[in-house]
Known about the structure:
This protein is an alpha/beta fold. The chain has helices at residues 5-8, 53-66, 84-93, 115-121, 135-142, 146-159, 186-201, 217-225, 229-238, 266-271, 307-310, and strands at residues 16-17, 23-27, 70-74, 97-102, 125-129, 171-175, 207-210, 253-256, 262-263, 299-300.
Amino acid sequence: MRDTWPLLKDHDFPALERGTLDTLQLNLGYLCNLACIHCHVAAGPKRKELMDRDTLALALEVARARGIRTLDLTGGSPEMNPHFRWFVARARDQGLHVMDRLNPTIIEEPGYEWVAGFLAEHGVEAVASLPCYSAANVDEQRGNGVFEASIRALQRINALGYGQPGSGLVLNLVYNPNGAFLPPDQDALEADYKRLLGERFGIVFNRLFALANMPIQRYGSWLLSKGRFEAYMGTLREAHRDDNLGAVMCRNLVSVDYQGHLYDCDFNQMLGLPMGGQSPEDRQRPHLRDLLDGPPPRRIATAGHCYGCTAGQGSSCGGALE
């Protein structure tokens, strides 16, 4: 896989500083039952990296010490971490809001039939990837049969109350473009998703998050292989809006890798760009345990890929910034 860091490190992206930390985004590991083209993590079925129980326990301790209210669980497929259920149950007992960024096909994977019921039992917010309402587009990104499996999984969690009015069980869907272009208007796309998924499959959900693809890891390598990297970066830079800088996710979030090291966001984690650092070659590697002694540094490490968060309507883990 081709590395895009040499093309991103020299940049003119505006300086950023962190505000109040309210979310720990924990990457529970790179193991996944899929290997999607657009994946900025390069996750897949052969990855071995998984967060251990001691690091997960430390995350709960840090949440108490820093007054953090939200745990945002990502991967890979977070549920494939063997300590997932232990961790989520304790986080909820601690009064923390838990978000699970799930690939819905995991619900149909042998050995993971428990996922839907467990999430509902513990009131976990489900953030499910469904990069299009078209089977052809989804299967192009994620593999043959993924769309149909995702639809069945979403119908199953709907039956448990997710996305249903008054249930308290939140289901948000995530859209990613299937090419080298920015997401369309999030509100208009959400309306299309709700209409088409409702009419065709009876699926309901709360919100749609429209996320831009980041020019790093597997997707960055794909752009390079197709000769589209520079054009895509040009698209991101030209669509940059200073208005989006105040709402980017790194201002109130810290990303934690499977070993407990800290980064300003999940994208920096995948580049190996340490929190507040200048480059992946920096030796300083802040760790979760450092947050027991004090807050994270205010300076946020940036590079050329950051334009992916500020282009157009903006893009973050919570969708468009506008």
